[in-house]
Amino acid sequence: MKRRAFIATLASLTVAGCTGSDPTPETVTETTRTTTSSTTTQPTQTTTSAATPPELRDLGVPVEDADCPFDAESVDRVVCHPEQTGEPLQLTPSMDGLTLPADSGTFTLANDTDSEFFANFYNWGLHKRVDGEWYYIVPLEWPEPLHTLPAGERHEWTLEVDNAQDPSRGVSGETGATVAQLGGGEYAFEVSGWFESGDHDHRIGLGVRFDVDGAQIELTASDDLSGTREDDTVVVTRDDEDEAPTEAFVLERVGEGGVPAGKPIHDRIAEQLVRPAPWSERALFRDALAFFEDDVSTVRLEQAAEFDPLFGRDERYYLRYSGDIYEADVVSLD
């Protein structure tokens, strides 16, 4: 779960499993921050070269012993609430959990050390754990300034959940954000940074696990779409589009046997699929998956404009959602 801001697409992922000559498809868990981040540039601050004191270097636990969504490529040590308490650098919640459909809570980063702490306050993350795996939800884009938290100071983020709102691309805020379309389950809020006596390559992760109480969300197509059944295929078009469609986004249920050897299968959850990517106007997988029924094998989204998918237009993409495996492709109708 890489905490760096990647300049990449959602196709650039953390791969679970081996690559190379393995004849079986790879499984990719969509856990990383893989959308294009803002390129806003702010003045950076130079850290000192003094060695990090042991009491700061040994905060929390090694990343492999922490039950929060970090890995060894993103941080060295982790302070994870509620297991690690009483640390001089701590992220703590104002609540035990949140209740759907609307609720809010605050996460406070307290620096009770004698050193200045560096972080990007926009670069927090919200994750959901499903079947033992953490999936990154929001934000999908954020600016990249460098903030400082002086010794003895606090910084707060407020997370508001409002499922009555439409899901957004998840633009980050320095003090939190409102997030729509979350389902019940276990979540984590996290941020990372480093001390003035260290450097950004030796980061400390701070996380809070909490529960969201409520029903799971369902993928529902946009209101302006209508589907027409043709045998086991559903053709979906926009209600207000008069021009003849020129492209189709095709999603076909194929099963694992339909995935070519060596091709990755991308595991996704509803809270990810419901949101459009920062560069896209529509959540294509949400709109297509919403029209699948037990006896439907293929859904075609057709429109009189080019699609902007999460994958290369000359590639095929394999998705696992809710136990089924799908092949996605973009084809010309000219």
Automatic annotation (TrEMBL):
Cited PROSITE patterns: PROKAR_LIPOPROTEIN (PS51257)
Protein name as annotated: Lipoprotein
Lineage, highest ranks first: Archaea, Methanobacteriati, Methanobacteriota, Stenosarchaea group, Halobacteria
Superkingdom, taxonomy of origin: Archaea
Biased composition (Low complexity): 23-54
Region ranges (Disordered): 18-55
